[in-house]
Amino acid sequence: MRVAIVIPCYKETRHIMAVLAAFDASVDTIYVIDDACPDQTGEMVRLECTDPRVQVIIQEQNTGVGGAVLTGYRQALADGMDVIVKVDGDGQMDPRLIPALVKPIVEGKADYCKGSRFHRLESLKQMPILRIFGNAVVSFMNKAASGYWNIMDPTNGFTAIHRNALLHVPLDKIALDYFFESDMLFRLGTLRGVVRDMPMDALYGDETSHIRASKVVLRFPWMYFKSFCKRLFYSYLFRDFNAASVQMLAGFLLMSFGLIWGIVQWSASSSAGVPATTGTVMLAVLPIILGFQLMLSAIQFDMNNVPTDPIQHVPISQLSLPPDTSNDADASGPSDSG
To answer: What are the tens digits of pLDDT across the range 84-101?
Structure first.
């Protein structure tokens, strides 16, 4: 298969040449996407890089890291590439791992593979404690939002995807900022694509992160919550109606009844100064307990419902995409750093 590399660049003049020099003969084409870099990374590559595989695409406006990657994706699809690998331009990803990253895709066992720094304790030695904690929290939110309970490190930017799987993805709805990787997992989850993790060590050096913690803390939870609600609708109401659907609906109704009944009766008892009877209390407690048990069963079903059949083998004409009537404008706006 023809393997292409997409490298989104924003202020990467210090590292980009070393990154480009590290790709071996297994890579067919390398797309360097200059996302309106103020330091003109793309122009530097054009002047200094002699590798004929390298193509530089310069964007006049900054579209965010996701927007830059999507530009590379579209160009790779147009050029007939089979597997498209996304590599950051800061040198944190070891190009020697690319054969291992694309292997499950080439063998037809996965649609999308990504790196994970959480397979070995040794892999986390260079990662700051605060980043480890934050990544663990984000990983749990992503599991619930995407349905991929079997993966970790969702914001890892070292990824590979099969062209047929990418053709199934609604690229015009993908987030353009740093939520890009998480949104890709959500979109693949709604399509039942198979995602695999590949153990890796991060290579930290003198690179500068363009991610602002305030944006992640304020934006990511809300985006994950929206994705979670959409996924439940797609998976358990629109596309299928199964045991988990019944358990979730019944559990939600029972817990809601118990809470509302309990609050109303507690308020009435407090106003009258008369303790509620045992039967009144149990009528509130039992639905809550039963509803909670049903919700736990639904979660267990969902955790065992991770996709196992790759969609790269499914013709696009046979794949029914779920409708998305929500306004995703806030999920696809450009960020201030690519």
So the answer is: 999 998 888 888 899 999
